[in-house]
Amino acid sequence: MSIASTAAMVASSTTAIAVLSCSTSFIKSTSSSFYGFQFLRSSIPACASICRRPNSLARSLYRFPFGSLNQRSTFTSSSTRPFSPVMEWQDCKVKLDVNVPASVAYKSYLDREAIAEWMPFISSVKILEDKPDLSRWSLKYEAFGRDIGFSWLARNLQPIPNQKIHWVSLEGLPNRGAVRFFPKGPSSCVIELTISFELPQVLAPVASALQPLLQSLLLAGLERFAKYAESQQLDSTK
Q1: 166 has which bridge partners?
Q2: Taking a C-beta distance cutoff of 8 angstroms, is the pair 144, 133 a contact?
Q3: CB 23 within 8 A of CB 43
Q4: CA–CA separation, 40 vs 31, rounded Å?
Q5: How many other C-beta atoms are found inside a 10 Å radius of the C-beta of residue 107?
Q6: Residue 143 backbone dihedrals phi, psi, to 5 degrees
Q7: What is the pLDDT of residues 158-181, one digit of tens each?
Q8: Which residues pair with 169 in a beta bridge?
Q9: How many whole angstroms separate alpha carbon 145 and alpha carbon 122?
Q10: 3-state secondary structure 39-78
């Protein structure tokens, strides 16, 4: 190895150590911030790659955003993805005792198009004629001083007769859910409705108030469903 090559490697290694030292100081000053954590994840793999590949120094320095934390920055490296404020999924669960057998409640809930009759925020459900496991849903409701409206295409997954109905959205508003039926006796059961959804960006400012609102709406919907199922049972005995 020539003296020039050895000198170049020493210089690159020294520079990498300096970058890592600078990164460490920066992390200490921002250890309580999210951006400091992201910077740590980005800088350490990058500095390690510098020691292995001296020629990558310029590219690695270009990836370090030494900007103000008051501005939203994107932190990237060869081992991490760009930061983006993705909304997390929200879960909501309600239960209700219903004065019909689990088999009757199950059969009544299978009628997806009738859900719009008793669920307050569902305006319509349309089953696709050529694909009966698929259905198009529309949601319309007025809350927080605005008209809220969403739609989605859902697929009903393989049910467990008299025990479970579940679904997942394929397009539109991301959501999934399940309805479970627990017998309490020969003429009553407990219905448990669980819904999970990705909070739409437009509703982010009211996220803390959305969960209790949805829970009250789902419970009100189940109470109306209980009356609907009871009427279905009466009609079947006539």
Answers
A1: 178
A2: no
A3: yes
A4: 9
A5: 17
A6: -155, 155
A7: 999 999 999 999 999 999 999 999
A8: 154
A9: 18
A10: HHHHHHHHHHHHHHCHHHHHHHHHHCCCCCCCCCCCCCEC
Burial class (CB within 10 angstroms; exposed 0-12, middle 13-18, buried 19+) of 162: middle
Tens digits of residue pLDDT in 93-146: 999 999 999 999 999 999 999 999 999 999 999 999 999 999 999 999 998 888
Q: What percent of the chain has pLDDT over 90?
A: 50
Of all residues in the chain, the percent with pLDDT exceeding 70 is 63
Buried/exposed 23-40: b ≥16 CB within 10 Å, e otherwise: beebbeebeeeebeebbb
Structure tokens at 37: 């954590």
Element (H, E) at 230: helix 207-237
